[in-house]
Design goal:
- Pfam families: LacAB_rpiB (PF02502).
- GO terms for molecular function: ribose-5-phosphate isomerase activity.
- One of its GO terms (biological process) is carbohydrate metabolic process.
- Belongs to the LacAB/RpiB family.
- The chain is of the alpha/beta class.
- The chain has one domain: Ribose 5-phosphate Isomerase B, Chain: A.
- Helices cover 46% and strands 16% of the residues.
- The chain has six helices and five strands.
- It has helices spanning 12-24, 42-55, 69-75, 89-99, 113-125, 132-141; strands at 2-7, 28-31, 60-65, 83-85, 103-107.
- Strands 2-1-3-5-4 form a five-stranded parallel beta sheet, sandwiched between helices.
- α2 crosses α3 and α4 (89-99) runs parallel beside α5.
- The longest helix is centred in the first third of the chain and has 14 residues, at 42-55.
- The protein is globular and about 45 Å long.
- The chain starts with a strand and ends in an 8-residue tail after the last helix.
- The mean pLDDT is 93.
Length: 149
């Protein structure tokens, strides 16, 4: 599986550690930057990550910034992406199982390396459950679909 990973300056150290760990776990990793502490704009990296996932260059994505919030918002601007901000493994598993999330976001200032690895393990090892969830996931990218209200 090819995984794209991107971060802003606040999370570049966590990104580097996770990219190395993912490679060690046998994943192909596309590191989209940033690669230093100089201030950058997280939307630029979120958009690049979203493009990689939407185009099929990567099957999954890992988005990181200080809180995880800003970069997750930027990734979710792309209708082909379903980015879930998580801070523990249960949310990561449910994001895949119920929401077919293809990108996970975490905050480097809030999530340590061991918890980030646990979240990624849950995210990458969980399949989408489909069934009743598929209808709901379809509506995420197609808001014009008939509602059940």
């Amino acid at each position: 599986m090819r995984i794209a990973i991107a971060s802003d300056h606040a999370a570049y150290e966590l990104k580097a550690l996770l990219a190395e760990w993912l490679r060690g776990e046998g994943y192909e990793v596309a590191d989209l930057g940033t690669n230093g502490p100089e201030s950058v704009d997280y939307p630029d990296y979120g958009y690049a990550l979203a493009d990689a996932v939407a185009s099929g260059d990567a099957e999954r994505g890992v988005a990181l910034c200080g809180s995880g919030i800003g970069i997750s918002i930027s990734v979710n601007r792309n209708p082909a992406c379903r980015c879930a901000l998580v801070s523990e493994p249960l949310s990561a598993r449910l994001a895949r199982e119920h929401n077919d999330a293809n990108v996970i976001a975490m905050g480097a200032r809030l999530t340590g390396i061991d918890m980030a690895k646990a979240c990624l393990t849950a995210f990458l090892s969980t399949d989408f459950a489909g069934d009743r969830h598929a209808r709901r996931v379809d509506k995420l990218s197609n808001p014009q679909l008939e509602t059940s209200r």
